[in-house]
Each structure stands twice: as C-alpha cells, then as structure tokens.
Amino acid sequence: MSVYAPFAKPLYVMLKPVGSFCNLSCDYCYYLEKSKFYTQNKNHVMSDELLERFTREYLESQTMPQVLFTWHGGEPLMRPLSFYKKALELQKQYGRGRQIDNSIQTNGTLLTDEWCAFFKENNFLVGISIDGPQEFHDEYRRDKMNRPTFQRVMRGIELLKKHEVEFNCMAVVNDYNADYPLEFYRFFKEIGCQFLQFTPIVERMTNGQLHPALASVTEKKAELAPFSVTPQQWGNFLCTIFDEWVKNDVGKIFVQIFDSTLANWVGEQPGVCTMAKTCGHAGVMEFNGDVYSCDHFVFPEYKLGNIYTEPLAGMMYSEKQLKFGNDKFDKLPRQCKECDVLFACYGECPKNRFSTDKYGETGLNYLCKGYFQFFHHVMPYMDFMKKELMEQRPPANIMKWIKQGNP
Length: 407
Ligand SMILES: C[S@@+](CC[C@H](N)C(=O)[O-])C[C@H]1O[C@@H](n2cnc3c(N)ncnc32)[C@H](O)[C@@H]1O
Ligand code: SF4
Ligand code: SF4
Ligand code: SF4
Prior knowledge:
By secondary structure, the protein is α/β, with parallel strands linked by helices. About 35% of the residues lie in helices and about 15% in strands. It has 14 helices and 14 strands.
C-alpha cells in the first residue's frame, strides 16, 4: 500500500520576536528597514498570545517527529529571558513528546552568563554574527552610536565557550573583507569556531540612498550598494579558502558552502536553500503574525497572510508559496539551463538575479562569474570526495590524496 503524504517535509517558519528592532545598526543590514512596513505599530514585540497561537499551530501542523524553532531578528536577545522560558513551556505543552530543537541567531553583544547558562541547559544552537578579525568586523558592524562592536561580540563568544554552548559563526563577505580570505578563515579557526557560514553581501539601493533604502528585488532601477562583494572577489575568496581547507581541515572545520557543494555533487539535498534546485521551505513570521515567503523577501508583495486569519500550513503550502519556491528553477535564464555546473549552483538565490546572461536574457545571478570559477575550481576535489563517500570511506581522505601529489 502506498501512503500519500503531501507534506512529508518539515514545516519551517522562523520567528521575529522583536521584528526588525536591534541594538546595532550594521550598514549593510537588509532587515533594519523592515520597520517601515510597520509604522502603525508602536512597539514591535510579539505578544504572549501570539507566541502561544504560533507554537500550537506550528506543532500541530508538523508531519515530522523533529521540530525546529528559529529565533531571528532584528536582535532576538532584545526580548527578556522570561519570553524564551515561556516559549519553552509552550513547546512542552503542545509538543506531545516530539523532539523540539531551538536555534537563535544573534549579534552576540547582549550575551551574559545568564543567557548562556539558559542556552546550555536547553540545548540551543546559537548562531553568532561576526565578520572576521576586528578591522573587518568593525568596518560595518557598528552600534546605534556608531561605536565598533568587535570586543563585545568576542566577549559573547567567550561566554558561550565558558558555558559550552554549541555555536556557529555567520560571517558576511563584503567589498572590504573579501580580499583577505586567509586572514579571515584563519581567524575563525583561532577563535575555535568549527562551523562556519559565509554569506555574500549583494544589495542594491535606490536614489543613491543607502540606509534605510536597500532596494526591493522587484525594483528595476536600483544600483549596486558599495559594500557589495564583486563576482570576482567572491570567486577568489571561495577558491582561496577552499584550497586551505581541503589540504588541512576536512572533517574538522565545517564550511557550509563546501558541505552543500559536496551534497549536490553526490545528489543529496544541500543544507542551504540557495544551493537547492527549488526553495520556499522556510517562511518568516513577524512580531504581529504576518507570514512571508522568505527572510530575504519580507516585502508586501511576498506576504502570504497573517496567522490570525489564515492557517500556517495553508500559507506555507499555498499555490503562491509553491510558485515562489519553484520559480527558483523555472525562472533560470538560458545560460544557467545550459551551464555544466547547474547541478551544484542552481543559480543561487533569486534575490541576486538581476544581471543579463550572454543571450540577453534577464535573471542571471549577479555573482555568476564567481560561482562558475568556484565550482570549476573544486571539481577534481569534489569528484574525489564523492568517490570516497560512494565507497563508504571518509571524504577527509582527500588530505592524504593531496599530499601524494594529486590532483
Ligand atoms: C539580519 S541578522 C538578524 C540576527 C542578528 N541581529 C544577527 O546579526 O545575527 C541575520 C544575519 O544576516 C546577516 N546580514 C545582514 N545584512 C545582510 C545582507 N544585506 N546580506 C546578507 N546577509 C546579511 C547578518 O550579518 C546576520 O548574520
Ligand atoms: S545586528 Fe543583525 S539585525 Fe542588527 S543591524 Fe546588525 S545584522 Fe541587522
Ligand atoms: S529566495 Fe533565496 S534565501 Fe529565500 S529561500 Fe529562496 S534561495 Fe533561500
Ligand atoms: S554558474 Fe552561473 S550560469 Fe552556471 S548555474 Fe550558476 S549562475 Fe547559472
């Protein structure tokens, strides 16, 4: 007998418990300006009632035994600890024995012993945003008084380590730090971060205004923001770090884009939406219950509805959201459809597809040249690691293979 399970995928919606409110004011931040959609609301705080409604519905809509709650922002540590204690109580109440995990994405500046003890006790995975060594980090990650934040973030990381909280580092790659890949990579190793995620900054702006005016993806007349990384920088950055990683650190340091590339090489699902064939599996719920297609598409035209008027599962499995996710593949321009590394790249994120391809079709990813360089550069290594995996040997064998003079 076959079982029809249309939703045999986890339902995943990230939460914004303080909307876009934040104690910092990073120049490149795409989320700060979202408050302009909520000028009617005096305070951008998720009520206990909404928290309960979401928790109940989110848990009831799940078709998988494991459920992940992700706390995001703005800066989610601007809510007091009592809010998260309440959230855990509700998870227990409505979880009916399911395994529930929590992750939180933070700038790390507000961490205290008390927060870290709580995260440890409740098994939170903490994502910390840090853009590399002090000089790089402080270039754009500054507080509302324009003061640098590196020291405060490092203090937070020390506290996480002291309390043995599991954490990973999220770093953006921009015009300023992209030319120093090795300094950047070695820094993360030195501070003891094993799990790394690099995100390229690609933003556009309108009317020459930087902040708060990052341009919507639908705006045609937008210029590139000066802090964006160039395709060449991005390609060189990835290739240089890959070369260092593949010789020394496979199986010790986990770099998300390298892992996802290997996953695509062997035909598994990559761990990140940008490298997948289709997307749209991760929605966002704002402090007032509005649900959007994706964290990078919090614009009125991508609103799926509000949890007070529409069921969560209905919004996430709606035609509109399905189309949003399928468009990632369906709208690829001809150059991508013919590309020999399409299976690894899939045109990356649709938010970055504002260039024109060699046939004059729109919708080519602005970073195309960088990705093309990277995927071609890693080909022999990925082929080797794929072979090892297929024969049930660890991909880390590649380090020995390289020492023997390969490829
Ligand atoms: C918007 S923040 C929210 C959570 C928290 N305030 C933090 O900084 O980690 C989430 C992540 O997005 C990254 N980010 C901010 N602006 C970005 C942009 N324009 N492009 C890509 N990533 C960006 C941040 O560095 C951070 O790692
Ligand atoms: S700390 Fe996070 S939310 Fe705040 S401005 Fe920086 S990137 Fe944006
Ligand atoms: S639009 Fe980009 S960030 Fe959003 S889900 Fe798709 S690939 Fe991921
Ligand atoms: S490398 Fe360029 S052409 Fe190839 S799939 Fe990626 S974006 Fe498209």
